[in-house]
Amino acid sequence: MPGSNPLVSVVIPLYNAAPFIGEALASIYGEGHPALDVIVVDDGSTDGSLAVAEERFPGIRAIRQDRAGIGAARNRGIAMAEGELLAFLDADDLWPAGRLAPLLAALAKLEGPGMAFGHVRHFLSPGLAPQNRSRFRCPPAPAPGYCAGAMVTHLADFRRVGPFEEDLRVGEFIGWLARARDLGLASKLVNAVVLERRIHGANQTVREREAFADYALMLKRSLDRRRQQA
After folding, report:
1. Which of 78, 103, 181, 226 is the most exposed place for a label (fewest CB within 10 A)?
2. Do residues 214 and 170 lie in contact, with contact meaning Cβ atoms separated by under 8 Å?
3. CA-CA distance, 93 to 205, in Å (whole number)?
4. Do 163 and 75 meet the contact criterion of CB atoms below 8 Å apart?
5. Does residue 223 form part of some domain?
6. Structure pTM?
7. Residues paired with 144 in a beta bridge
């Protein structure tokens, strides 16, 4: 069970997010938890994103790699993590103030390996051009968020499940979560907003739209794994 202020490693995959990374990092350090290990993995950015991050927040641990995808970037950061607990944030999203407290409390109540999730609130990026705002639907209310950015887990439990599948350009967290549940990791959903997801027109799901077949591949792998276990 974690102590009152356990070290939390936060892994941020970064790809061409120079307009957003400063605000994302500020939201982490402004969250209120006193023990943070922030790891930013630049996945081949060409817009100077990592320089922006390092200039504004020199205390981060920064890694550069050739473009390999979000799964590979997260895995690289996880390999360097030193915290008792593990959390994630995409470079264009935000943590609301105080988001870790309810997640850590929920995680502490679980008996055995587990994960804590919270709710996600979507918002249209203030920099989105007026003519583009009508193109995007922003859900009006927070919703349960079973995604990397809304989760906290023990680093040891994550490593027990194993790394993200790096050949999946989308759906890598869904695949990981399926494996975690197959291994018996419990999950707890807290009734609090723990992630603010920015809608700006160049989100990962938009950039990688042609890779949506990866969802079918991920589902097939999950079904094959369960058949083998049966």
Report:
1. 226
2. yes
3. 14
4. yes
5. yes
6. 0.87
7. 119
Distances (CA, A) of 41 to 38, 164, 207: 10, 15, 19
pLDDT tens sequence across 55-95: 999 999 999 999 999 999 999 999 999 999 999 999 999 99
Q: Is residue 78 in some structural domain?
A: yes
Q: Which residue has the higher pLDDT, 125 or 161?
A: 161
Residue 210: exposure state from Cβ atoms within 10 A (0-12, 13-18, ≥19): exposed
**Residues 197, 146, 174, CA angle at the centre, nearest 5°?**
110
Specify if 1 maps to a domain: no
Domain of residue 89, residue span: 8-229
Q: Residue 17: is its pLDDT beyond 60?
A: yes
Closest residue by Cα to residue 145 from 165, 125, 116, 180: 116
The answer to whether residue 2 is domain-embedded is: no
**203 pLDDT higher than 70:** no
Cβ(56)–Cβ(80) under 8 Å? no
HSE, CB side, 13 Å, CA atoms: give it for residue 71: 16
Q: Give me the percent of the chain exceeding a pLDDT of 90.
A: 75
Q: How many domains does the chain have?
A: 1
Instruction: Work out the number of other CB atoms within 10 angstroms of the CB of residue 1.
Output: 9
CATH number for the domain harbouring residue 225: 3.90.550.10
CA atoms within 13 A on the CB side of 157: 27
3-state secondary structure 78-103: HHHCCCCEEEECCCCCECCCCCHHHH
CB-CB contact of 185 with 115 (8 Å): yes
